[in-house]
Structures are given as structure tokens and as C-alpha cells.
Amino acid sequence: MKLNPSIIFSPKYDIQFFGLEKLHPFDSCKYGRVWKELKKIFGKNLDNWTKSPEREVLTDELSTVHTQGYLSEFLTNSWYLSQALELLPLALVPYKLIDRAVLYPMRLATRGTILAAECALEDGISVNLSGGYHHASREQGEGFCIYSDIGIAIYQLRQSGKIKSDDKVLVIDLDAHQGNGIARIFYKDESVFILDMYNEDIYPQDSWARKRINANIPLNSGTNNSVYLDKLKTELPLFIKTYKDAKIAFYNAGTDIYENDSIGKLRISKQAVLERDKFVFNSLIDSEIPCAMVLSGGYSKESYKLVVNTIDYILRTWAMGSRI
């Protein structure tokens, strides 16, 4: 498998809305922070590995996953958006302003995940510096997730013929929260296989969606490095071996497992977060399964630095097929 990492990024990924975004613990500007740090490390070389989505995802693309009622009614309702985005003051803001400042960057990032998937199929490895909206389902947005970028990317790969409708697709979700939206979207789809390792003591505790997970690995608050990595290094190889002929894997690499994260409630060190990511990529590459990574959750001030560590490793290990 040819390996030539691609980084997908747009400066328009960052979400800024008159300071209201600061009321949410998620750093909605971490995408740009990651890019700036990588630029300091790699300089002009970074441009050689970077691609930008040329446009936002279109309504007909969104409609492959989301219902028309959700897109045209719920997502034009400020009160509904304030609940789904967990920013209650937005209920008083005109919908069009929310669409421009918040939903547009998310649609652009969703298009970025589609692009990342296409690049992964062609060159083995890609990272979208946003996305991972794994709580969004067909008819509902929640948990700061409005569009199911991974779900839409899978449908777009199928529609474009880049993968067949019965080709196996892996979703490896290592965000601290259960990826209930993805499980709900693909509940009856026997070609999508999900590994989800998450803190079962926190949101969303979706018991119905949990039944859809192929490799269900619940954790408890306070789980430490050794327990976490032991479980991952036991379960992930079995999962990959079971579905070894998969055409692509989507890796939801949430940094909210970090010990200083205010929401994830796990005790995973900075070094262990990087070890996790290394293990995922090396396991998939050894099995010759292309991988598209998305950022998902992360609620510490250091979240963007953890992402930088992982991308630094990817580029130094596989960029242009040799070490930098």
C-alpha cells in the first residue's frame, strides 16, 4: 500500500461567534491552533501535504444521511440549534447568523472528511483537522454535533463508486464518549463495523445504539494508562483481523481521554494518547487498510497540542515514504 499522508485543513474550520463559543468547554478554534503549530515544525513542507476542501458539503450530500425534515426544519430553528450545540444563548440569535458562523464551518469540515476519505483510499493515510461529529444521527443533532461527517463520507464513497455498497468499512471510535450517532445511522448496515471504546459513566449512555457496536469496550471513569492501552492492544488487533479485508477505516481520535480533560473523566497521559494513536495507525497500515483520521472531542487547553504530537509522528514516519 502506497503511503503519502494528506492533511486536510481550511482556516475557515475555526468557529468564532462574538465570543459565545467560549461558553462551551470545547475549543472551537483548535483546528487553526493545530495548523499553526505544525507550520512552526514543518515550515513550507507542510503545504506539500495539505489539501483544502474546495467547498462546503451540499444539501444533496447531506440528504444521503440526514432526513429532509431535520435539514430544513430543525436546522433552521435557533432554539433547536442552541440545544444541539449546547450553547443556550444561541436561542436568541437569528438562525442565519448561526448558520454562517457555526454551521458553515461544520459543513466545510464535513466536506473535509469526504476529501480525507478519498485521499486515504488513494494514498493510505489522511487526517482532517476537524470533524468527528459522532453524536449526530439521521434526525437529530446533539453534543455539539450537527452533521454526521463520517456517515456522509461513507455514503459519498459508495455513490461515487470509490467503494462498493458491500465493501467493509471500519469505524474505530476512541473518543471518550460513545459514538451513538454513527451506531444509529448504520444500525442495519451490515457492511460497516464499529469498534467503540468509551467512558460508559458519562454522556450519552445510549443503550439502544450500544447494541449496534461490533466491538463494544466500555470503560469507567478514572481508567488509567495501563488498563486503557491493554484493552486497546487486545481488542483492536482482533477487530482488524476479523474484518481484515476492509477497504477503509475511519479513526475518531478524540483527545478527551486525556487526564486533564474537563469532561472525559479518564486518566490517560499525554504520552499514552500518542501511544494510542501510533498503535491505531501502525495496526491498520500493517493490515494494509487505508485510514482517515478525524479530531472529534477534546476539552482541555492542551487538546490541540496532543493532536500536533500525533500528526508530527505521522508526517515524520510516512510523509513521502521516508522520514523527514
What oligomeric arrangement do these chains adopt? Answer: single chain
Largest sheet: 8 strands, parallel
- Name the helicity range: 40-55%
Mean pLDDT over the full residue set? 95
First-last Cα distance: 20 Å
CATH-defined architecture: 3-Layer(aba) Sandwich
How many helices does DSSP assign? 12
Sheet-strand content, in percent, reads 5-15%
Number of strands: 8
What is Rg? 18 Å
CATH homologous superfamily placement: Histone deacetylase domain
CATH fold naming: Arginase, Chain A
Number of domains: 1
Please state the overall shape, judged from the principal axes of the Cα atoms: globular
Quickly give the structural class. Answer: alpha/beta
What is the topology, as strand order, of the major beta sheet?
2-1-3-8-7-4-5-6
Low-confidence stretches: none
Keywords: Hydrolase
Domain Histone deacetylase: 24-308
Protein name: Histone deacetylase domain-containing protein
Family: Belongs to the histone deacetylase family.
